[in-house]
Amino acid sequence: MPAENASVAGNLDDDDYPAFTMGRAADVLGTTPAFLRAVGEAGLIAPLRSEGGHRRYSRHQLRTAARARELVDQGTPIEAACRIISLEDRLDDALRLNREMRQELDGRRADT
């Protein structure tokens, strides 16, 4: 496989590759471009911009926006939904770091 094709194939597996236009992202989520702009303005996701200035979204960002949509559909204001998701992400990161530190500490204890 030529290097160019390998690079393209790698992008298909990259969760952070900005593969979706705003219109396509809205279609996939069953929402509107205005909703995507709102979650962007709230700071939940920051789409990359194409050379022409168009927003491009990754699969990771679409999953995050989908979670926000679930909360909004349940009656949560969009700003609150974005804050909840941000706090959930921070908690997940802290729990992961705590697990890693415990494993490292347990490994040191086993070596002594």
UniProtKB/TrEMBL annotation:
Protein name, as recorded: MerR family transcriptional regulator
InterPro entries to which the protein is assigned, alphabetical: DNA-bd_dom_put_sf, MerR-type_HTH_dom
Residues annotated as domain HTH merR-type: 19-87
Pfam families listed in its UniProt record: MerR_1
Organism: Streptomyces musisoli
Taxonomic lineage: Bacteria, Bacillati, Actinomycetota, Actinomycetes, Kitasatosporales
